[in-house]
Amino acid sequence: MEILHISAECYPVAKVGGLADVVGALPKYQNKIGHIAKVVVPAYETKFVRENEFDVAYDAWANYGNNHFQFRVLKEKTNKLGFDLYIIHIQGLTDRPNVYGYQDDTERFVAFQIAVLDWIVQWEHRPDVIHCHDHHTGLIPFMVSNSIKYTPIRTVPTVLTIHNAQYQGQFGWEKLYYIPAFDLWKGGLLGWDDAINPLASAIKCAWKVTTVSPSYLGEMMGNARGLESLLRQESWKSVGILNGIDTEVWDPETDPMLVKSYNLKTIEAGKLANKKALCDVFQLDSSKPLFTFIGRLVDEKGADLLPDIFNTALQQHGDNINVLVLGSGDNWVEGRLNQLKDIFRGKYNAYIGYNEQVSHEMYAAADFLLMPSRVEPCGLNQLYALRYGTVPIVRRVGGLKDTVIDIGDGGFGICHDQTSIWDVTQAINRAVELHKNKKAFKAVRKTMMKIDHSWDKAALNYIELYQILK
Ligand code: ADP
Ligand code: GLC
C-alpha cells in the first residue's frame, strides 16, 4: 500500500515532542514490511532543513481566502530517513525556526494543509491512504471529502491519529473563507462548540480514528477537553494502537550520544559510566540513586507539582538521593525548578531547555524516571527508559497504564494512582527501598531491557486498519 503521512513534526526534521518520534519511525517500519510510506511536513528553518539537500517536486500558487500564496514541495534527495520525505515551503509562513507558538499558527497550518492537497490532487502517485496526525492536519479529512477542487481524490481514505486531544486548534468562524469552497450546508462538519475545531472535524470526517494507546481511547470518552460526546458517537470507527519506539535510534548498544554503550550483559558497568559522566557535568553524586524527569513542563505532565515533589523528597531523604530535570515550558515552573538549585546544591540540578543529547544521556544514566502525568496519550519516555534499563515511576493513566506493570504485581516499574505530591513522594520512597536491594534492582533492570516495544507490531496494526478501508 502507498501511505502518505501528514504531520507538523517528524524527527529529525522538526521535533517538539513524541509526535515527531512517531512520524519519524512508523513510516520507516511500514516500508520495512513492504509498503510505501511517505511523510510530508512544513519546511521550517530547522538544522535538518538547512543541512540537507532537496529537489523541487512541485511549485505552484494556491488560493487562500481572498488572497493567495506561493508554495514549493521539496523532496529530500537521499532517502536517508528510510522513507521519502517531502517538506512544503510557504514563503512567510513555514520558514521560521519554531514549529508552534506564533500568533498566526492557524494561518500557517491551514495554508500547509491546502498546499498538501493542491499538490496531491495533481500528483501521479495517488496514495491509498492519507494518514493525518493531530489537529494541525485535521482539516484534511473534511477538505478531501467536501472541497469541490479536491473531488478527484474524494475516494482516498483518510485516517486520523490523535496523539493529544488537549490541543484542538480551534479558530473563529470568521476565518471559514480560508477553506476551499464546499457545499455550505456541510459546514457543520467543521465545527464544535461555536468554533471551527480541526480536531473535532477530523474525528467526524476521517474514515478511521486511532489513538496512541487503548487506555487513552477509553479515557477520552470521559475526559477529552469537551470532545467526550463526539468520541463516544464516533467510537464505532475508533481504535487504540499502542505506539512503538524506533529501536535503531534508541539503542544503548549503538547510541552515539552515550559516553559508554551497553547491552543486557554490560548494563551495570555501562549505566554506571554514563551516570558518572552525567553527574560530573551536573555536580551530582553518582553513588546515590538518580531520579530524573524529562519532558514538556506543562500541566498535563504534572509539571506544576514537580518543584514541591522534589522539595519534599529531597528534604525527606536528606543525602540519599539525587535529582536531575530536563525540560521547558511553563515559565513559573521553570523559575521554581531553577530556584531549587541553590537550596539543594550537589543533590539537585535542572537543565531548562530542549536538548536531545542530554535526554539520551539521562535515559542511560538515570536509575529512575518520573512521569506523574495527568494525561498521557501514550508516552514514549517510559519506553525509552525501559530500553535503557531505567525504572519508570508513572501514574496509572493512558499509555503509562498500558506499558508499565508495578513490581508489586510481578512487573518492573513503580505505579501510583494520582498526580499528587503525596502519591509521587510515596512512589519515590518505594524506589529508594528498591534501590537498596541491589539484587532485586539488577534483576528489574534486566527484565526491562528485554521488553520489546519496537514498531514491528504496531506498524502492522496500522496496515491492517488501512486494508479494511480499501
Ligand atoms: P509528549 O509528546 O507529550 O511531549 P512523549 O513522552 O510522547 O511526550 O515524548 C516526548 C519526547 O520528547 C521524547 O522523545 C523526549 O525524550 C523528548 N523531550 C521532551 N522534552 C525534552 C527536552 N527538554 N529535551 C530533549 N528531549 C525532550
Ligand atoms: C503526544 C502525547 C504523548 C504521545 C505522543 C506520541 O504528544 O502527549 O503521550 O506519546 O504524542 O504519540
From TrEMBL:
Q: In which pathway does it act?
A: Glycan biosynthesis; glycogen biosynthesis
The main enzyme category here is transferase
Domain of life, source organism? Bacteria
Stretches assigned to the Glycosyl transferase family domain = 282-441
Gene3D superfamilies to which the protein is assigned, alphabetical: Glycogen Phosphorylase B (3.40.50.2000)
EC identifiers of the protein:
2.4.1.21
Where is ADP-alpha-D-glucose annotated to bind? 15
Statement: the UniProt record of this protein carries the keyword Lyase: no
Domain annotation Starch synthase catalytic: ranges: 3-232
- Write down the chemical reaction(s) this protein catalyses: [(1->4)-alpha-D-glucosyl](n) + ADP-alpha-D-glucose = [(1->4)-alpha-D-glucosyl](n+1) + ADP + H(+)
Keyword line = Glycogen biosynthesis, Glycosyltransferase, Transferase
NCBIfam families associated with the record: glgA
Q: Which family does it belong to?
A: Belongs to the glycosyltransferase 1 family. Bacterial/plant glycogen synthase subfamily.
- Report the function annotation for this chain: Synthesizes alpha-1,4-glucan chains using ADP-glucose.
Q: Which HAMAP family match?
A: Glycogen_synth
Identification of the protein by name: Glycogen synthase
Origin organism is Pedobacter mendelii
